[in-house]
């Protein structure tokens, strides 16, 4: 499971894509070796001649639009992608190595935390590696049955995991741009400048323009602040936080709100949390990781000119595609149909709100769940046992299959973010 989480995270897969992109450039060049280059050709065509000048040193220049030096543009474009791939690799490894080392040091210094693992037969190294990899990849798995509830008093451990949640998901583009800027001050100045100024030409989804990166940080912090204030105002004296002191409550609430976006680790039983907070968490889980507030200027509001005739089949397909929210409603309705018997016999556990939370959590690849409690049964079952598994563990096989499809749909949602444009709500 650790290996699957390690290689299945968004950052790792995007890094593999960068390395494949480099090899593709070299492959194209090998196939087309010996062809002449027209300075007016596109960047992709220029890249075919990279190996023809292996000893040529590209001069430093300000922009990529210097058509009088196609070889320089091609070499700089290739070197920039190569530099970016190694920056992402370094970021990916360094953050997680520091996280594992920090958790091991914390466990060595605080015996109470290590005793929790010892009582459950979990080795410190296994816990450290598994938890950091899971948190950084936004999987939400923790090798304890109680998730992070058992560590709610260990504020130091929560402080270690909070940066892993943010750096591995919502703040990755902003941190990546910052690291490129820092490295560009000392090494690879031309490549760093090219990456920072030509994010569209590079074609790396996680490398955002300067304004977008800055507004992304402000948006993420704004959501965290809103969730923090809401959680504190409604749950400060609740049963889940009642056994903690003030400092521990602050850290625990911060940890909970940070995880509400994508990681899904929790320090409280979500079934006991106020419905208003659960609705807020549903909205947070639905939002894509790089959601940010971008002011719209006047030019963007003007209708664009028609850019040529599109194929009829393609236009029809686009008109039939629904929005992300529409698909979620469809999935929720289907699950309510498959679980209609349980909804009727056990309405408190199988409430529509709990089903919505489970579906949206699966869509956002978060992992939040309200769980299942025998105490909430209207008709108590004599053999019922409370277990620390997800609420979907009590669903029918049909409902579980639909939820699996929701997980895949959520992981691939970036390919359908522009769906539903044919629907006009006036």
Describe the structure.
The protein is mainly alpha-helical and 426 residues long. The protein folds into 2 domains: 1-270, no CATH class; 312-416, no CATH class. The chain is 58% helix and 0% strand. It has helices at residues 2-8, 10-31, 43-46, 70-109, 111-119, 124-136, 155-167, 172-186, 189-197, 199-202, 210-235, 246-259, 275-286, 298-301, 312-320, 324-338, 340-345, 352-363, 397-411. Helix 4 packs across helix 9 (189-197) and helix 11 packs across helix 12. The protein starts with a helix and ends in a 15-residue tail after the last helix. Residues 32-68 and 296-307 have low confidence and may be disordered.
Percent of residues in helical segments?
Answer: 55-70%
Succession of helices and strands: HHHHHHHHHHHHHHHHHHH
Q: Quick one: how many beta strands?
A: 0
- Provide the low-confidence segments as ranges: 32-68, 296-307
Distance between the termini: 48 Å
The share of residues in extended strands comes to under 5%
CA-based shape: globular
Please give the count of helices: 19
Indicate the structural class: mainly alpha
Largest sheet: none
Spatial extent as radius of gyration: 25 Å
Mean pLDDT: 80
What is the number of independent domains? 2
């Amino acid at each position: 499971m650790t290996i699957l989480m390690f290689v299945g995270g968004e950052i790792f897969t995007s890094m593999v894509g960068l390395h494949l992109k480099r090899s593709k450039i070299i492959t194209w060049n090998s196939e087309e070796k010996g062809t002449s280059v027209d300075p007016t050709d596109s960047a992709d065509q220029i890249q075919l001649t990279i190996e023809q000048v292996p000893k040529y040193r590209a001069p430093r220049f300000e922009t990529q639009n210097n058509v009088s030096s196609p070889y320089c543009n091609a070499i700089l474009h290739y070197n920039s992608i190569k530099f970016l791939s190694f920056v992402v690799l370094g970021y990916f490894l360094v953050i997680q190595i520091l996280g594992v080392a920090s958790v091991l040091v914390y466990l060595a210094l605080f015996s109470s935390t290590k005793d929790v693992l010892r009582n459950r037969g979990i080795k410190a190294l296994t816990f450290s590696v598994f938890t950091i990899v899971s948190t950084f990849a936004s999987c939400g798995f923790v090798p304890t049955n109680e998730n992070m509830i058992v560590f709610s008093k260990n504020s130091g451990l929560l402080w270690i995991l909070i940066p892993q949640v943010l750096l591995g998901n919502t703040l990755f583009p902003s941190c990546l741009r910052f690291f490129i800027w820092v490295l560009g001050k000392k090494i690879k100045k031309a490549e760093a400048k090219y990456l920072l100024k030509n994010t569209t030409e590079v074609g790396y989804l996680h490398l955002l323009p300067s304004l977008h990166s800055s507004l992304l940080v402000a948006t993420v912090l704004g959501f965290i602040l809103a969730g923090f204030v809401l959680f504190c105002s409604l749950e400060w004296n609740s049963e889940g936080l009642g056994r903690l002191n003030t400092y521990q409550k602050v850290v625990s609430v911060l940890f909970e709100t940070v995880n509400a976006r994508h990681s899904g680790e929790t320090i409280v039983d979500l079934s006991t949390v106020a419905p208003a907070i659960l609705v807020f968490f549903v909205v947070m889980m639905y939002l894509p990781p790089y959601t940010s507030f971008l002011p719209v200027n006047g030019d963007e509001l003007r209708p664009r000119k028609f850019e040529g005739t599109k194929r009829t089949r393609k236009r029809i397909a686009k008109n039939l595609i629904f929005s992300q929210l529409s698909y979620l409603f469809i999935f929720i309705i289907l699950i309510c149909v498959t679980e209609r018997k349980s909804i009727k016999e056990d309405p408190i556990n199988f409430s529509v709100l709990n089903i919505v939370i489970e579906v949206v959590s699966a869509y956002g690849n978060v992992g939040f769940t309200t769980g299942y409690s025998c105490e909430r049964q209207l008709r108590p079952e004599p053999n019922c046992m409370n277990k620390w598994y997800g609420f979907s563990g009590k669903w029918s096989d049909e409902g579980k299959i639909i939820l699996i499809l929701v997980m895949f749909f959520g992981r691939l949602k970036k390919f359908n973010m522009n769906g539903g444009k044919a629907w006009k709500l006036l």
